[in-house]
Structure formats: structure tokens, C-alpha cells
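Reminder to self: keep the SMILES exactly as supplied, no canonicalising. Ligand is zinc ion.
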Amino acid sequence: MAGTALQRRLTWLTAQVRDNRSESPSVHRLVLDVPGWPGHRAGQHVVVRLTAEDGYTAQRSYSLASPPEEPDLHLLVARLDGGEVSPYLTDELRADDQVELRGPIGGFFVWSAAADRRDAQEGRRPVQLVAGGSGVAPFAAMLDHHRRTGSPTRLRLLYSASTQEEILARDVLGPETTVTLTRGVPAGWSGEAGRIDADMLRRRTFPPDEDPRIFVCGATMFAEAVSSSLLDLGHSPSSIRIERYGSSGEPS
Amino acid sequence: MTEPAGPSDTTAARRLDGNAAAGALADLFAVDVTTARSRCPSCGKTSMLGAHHLYADAPALVLRCPHCTDVVLRYATQQGRILLDLRARLLTIPAPAPANESNGA
Amino acid sequence: MSVLSRGFRRGRSQERSDGRLPPGQYDAGDGFPVLSAGPTPSTPLDRWDLTVHDETGERHRWSWEEFRVLPREAVSVDIHCVTTWSKFDTRWEGVSLDTLLQDAPTTARFVLAGSDGGYTTNLPLDDVTGGRAWVVDTYDGRPLAPEHGGPARLLVPHLYFWKSAKWVRRLTLLPHDRPGFWETFGYHNHGDPWLEQRYSGD
Ligand SMILES: Cc1cc2nc3c(=O)[nH]c(=O)nc-3n(C[C@H](O)[C@H](O)[C@H](O)COP(=O)(O)OP(=O)(O)OC[C@H]3O[C@@H](n4cnc5c(N)ncnc54)[C@H](O)[C@@H]3O)c2cc1C
Ligand SMILES: [Zn+2]
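C-alpha cells returned for the bound complex:
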């Protein structure tokens, strides 16, 4: 891993909402213009803060779904019915509204083309991404970053979505991606079907003898199931990095 | 009643990773400590703070060792003060890169 | 200078104006938030016991079967969490600490509760005797769920809920106070919600 970056002091920045559009039935894409944004690495997240009129504040973390090369910041926010923050972000926030955030946050769950160039040995290890639902957000940033930098690093994504309509970030999914649908497949579907298990991981991801760097992201119970299957397949714990999103509000 | 804490356990379903504490810890540290390796005060095993278990629903952020689940760090802000209980026996932090490499790229 | 989020409100909260809401608290309504600082322990009942210690060692031990036949009480109380939610008319059943600590040594002035998973919290003996504290194993007519502290937790409803240690296994009687998990981390040593004793110094 490359040396740690000295981080700027994190301050609350005011983001201008450029667009808030539906990405899928349950997910919105927030496009934010953030004056003073210091730049980020693919995989990092921000903390969004909402302030009510009575002064009450709530904060939640959201992965950056856009690559460092893109000046606007994109978030993919899943609406959790009954949730405190996400329904506000998806349904109430409008273009030209403002929202506070701080970031970029977290150097643990990142992949960068430049770091792979600097560290040739590390750069030779392929990168395996495994996503569940909105957990594809940081990988959308990584895939886009990979393409825009023309990185030679070998990279694959195995992505679990509930239905075809719920597939997010379609514009950046290419041949490196395998999608599996967990709640039924449409006629003519050529991808995988069902939950990600050891067998699907064996067929669709880099095997342990290629020593991949593995990133897993999604609801906590999803990440838990995937990481234990990966360990069963013989991947070493130190090659797996996990970003748990917490409870998805539904049985996973 | 004897039913063990299984998949229906809310606490297990809400657990996060040390990486999610990076924003809070940035108020204290000049470098990102999620890639720092931490030696557990109980079992002596070493792992990156970003790979520790994070319990964020409690009155403070509580980071636990991924091997033995013992407490490694507690962090809270209370009324204008920051409280840090760092129990890790040794933190090894990658030296900061030159400032011009700090972000982007 | 913070940006107001037009139309944003605190989730899952209800108004309450009958004087039962301590300062700074909100009514969580039907919800029962789970606040955990660690994994949920699971001790099989045949290996569960509850012990009372003093400085010199163990004074009492009850197995699960023995605990279940102790004199029981049913209580309906309001509970208040330091993270600002309160929950009203919660119904519990269990054994009063008056029963468990019957023959406490005269030198004892404090209790340190210890739980599976390593959690501790300290209480003055006066706060847990006189019908003010219980070890409960039943919530709302059902066995207490592991995530809420089952098989058995402490219930001290007149103090902030962190004093009501989940998964309690041991009560240690002490002549001197010994601060517990949160009390050593800036939280108030006593924790009276009506005096808003959240943090040390409050
Ligand atoms: C590093 C990181 C990155 C993330 N990135 C994304 C992202 O890119 N996109 C995305 O959509 N999400 C992301 N998340 C999840 C996000 O931060 C929020 O958790 C999510 O949006 C839900 O927030 P909410 O306020 O709507 O729901 P909440 O009100 O927080 O509720 C969430 C669920 O938990 C339950 N709940 C809440 N509190 C308790 C409690 N104390 N006890 C028991 N149950 C409780 C609720 O009933 C509900 O089912 C990320 C999380 C992390 C940690
Ligand atoms: Zn350990």
C-alpha cells in the first residue's frame, strides 16, 4: 500500500444539489457541486449532515460513486422506508437545494490506478469487487476511474441486485461485470441468478492462486455472507477489505 | 429462549468497519489511521484499524479487535470535548506521503 | 453557520406533554432501539449463572433453574437512554435486587454489575435496593431477546439505561465505588435522567 496521505482538516462543506434523479425504483442518484472539494480516491465516502429547524442534526455515510476525474460528486442513495435520512435525500432534496457534507473519508477501502503504477508488485495483483445492492456505489467510482486512466490492472466485479430494474450505474458496467439477480430473472437473461455463494464466487471471481485484492461492499449481512464464503474458498483474510453499510432494513 | 444470537440479531446486522470511523477520527489525527496497523491489547494480533469491528450505535464509537473482539479504541464527542480511549498496544502508521500527492490521483 | 434542511425532522419521534419525558429526551414510541458496544453474547442456559460477590469472593450463585424459582415481581416502568430516546410503560418480570442482595455485608456501599462480553457498570447500593432494581428475564410477556440483554439483564429504570446492564452475570458488592465501562469514559457516574446527568461534570 502507498504511504498514507496527510489529510486536510475535514470541514463541513456546502454542497449544491445539481440533480436528484431516480436511478432505479429504490435508489436515487444525487449529483452535487461542492466548491472547495479537495479531490478524492475511488472507494472513499462522505458524511452527509442534515439539520432540522429545531437544531436536531443527523449524519450518515455515503460512498462516492463518481471517480476522482469527475468534478461533480455522485452519490447513490437507497431509500430505506422508515429510515431517518435516506428517504429525505431521495424524495425531498431538490436541485438547487443545499446539503452539508464532509470528506473525502477513509483510506482503507480505496483503489487507485496511480498507486498501482507506483507499486508494481501490488499492481500485478488483480482486483476483485463484490457488491450487493447500493454497495456497488464505490465500485462504480473504481470502474470509471479504471477506464478513464486506462489502467492495466485486471479488475472484475460480481454484483448482486434484486431485480433487473434495480441494477445501478449501468453506464459504467462493462464486460468485467457479472450481475446476479436474486428475485427472479427476466426472459432471455444471460447473467447469474440467485444469491452469491461459494459456488458462484468460484465460477465468477479471481481464484485464490491469482492472489486478488478483494473488496466487498453492501449491507452488513450480505458482506458477512460473502466474506465467509471467500474465506472458505481459501482467500486469506488480509486480502479481503470490507465496507459494511449496516442493516438494509430487510432480511438479506 | 436459548436461541443463540443469530442472523436475526440487530446488533450483528448493524455492525460496521473501522473504515467508517475515519471521518470522526480525522478530527484528531493528521493522517488517516484506517490503514494503520494496530496490535490488540488482549490477544496481541495485528490488523488494520479499517478492518476492525465498529459499533456505532452505542453512546460512543467502539472499535473492537476482529480476532478476539476486545475493545481497542473508544471515541466520543461530548459537549465540546473529544474523548479518546486508545487501548491498542502499538499503532504502526504508514509515514505521510509528500503533500502534493495527498489527494486525487 | 449550518445549512437548514427544509422539511427534515427527527425520525421515529413522538410528542409527549404529560410530564413523563425527562429533559432532552424524546419518545421513541413503539420502537425499541438496540444500542450495543459489542457483539451479542450467547451463553447457553445450562452454563448460565448469576453470582453475587464481595471483595473476598463468591457469596451466592444461582443456576438458571435456581434463578427462575426465586420470588418474582412484574413491573411496568419508563426507561430513558442517554442517547436521548425514552420508552414508556415497558413491562418486565424478574427478581428484585432486594432478594438477591438480602444479606449484603454492612460494609458494602456500591455494586459493580458485570456482564458476558466484559461490560461493567457501577451503582450505589442505595439505588438498587428498596424496590428500585431487578434482574429481569422477561419483556412484554416473552423471554428477553438476546439483543435486548437476554437471557437476563439488570433493570434500574430511574437511572439512564446504560446502568441497566444487559447480559448481567455478576454483582460485586464493594465498600468503595469502582467506575464501569461508560463511567470511565466521560459518562456521569450516577446518571439520573431527571437531573440530566449525562456526562461527568453535568
Ligand atoms: C461507509 C459507509 C458508506 C455507505 N454508503 C452508502 C451508499 O453509498 N448508499 C447508500 O444507500 N447507503 C450507504 N450507507 C448506509 C447509509 O449510511 C445509511 O445507513 C442508510 O442510508 C440508512 O440511513 P437512514 O437514516 O435512512 O436509516 P436509519 O434511520 O438509520 O435506519 C436504518 C435501519 O436501522 C434501523 N435502526 C436504526 N437505528 C436503530 C437502532 N438503534 N436499533 C435498531 N434498529 C435501528 C431502522 O429501523 C432501519 O431499519 C453507507 C454506510 C457506511 C457505513
Ligand atoms: Zn484481539
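Points to follow up:
Helices of chain C lie at 64-68, 97-100, 125-128.
The interface with chain A takes residues 2-12 of chain C (CB under 8 Å).
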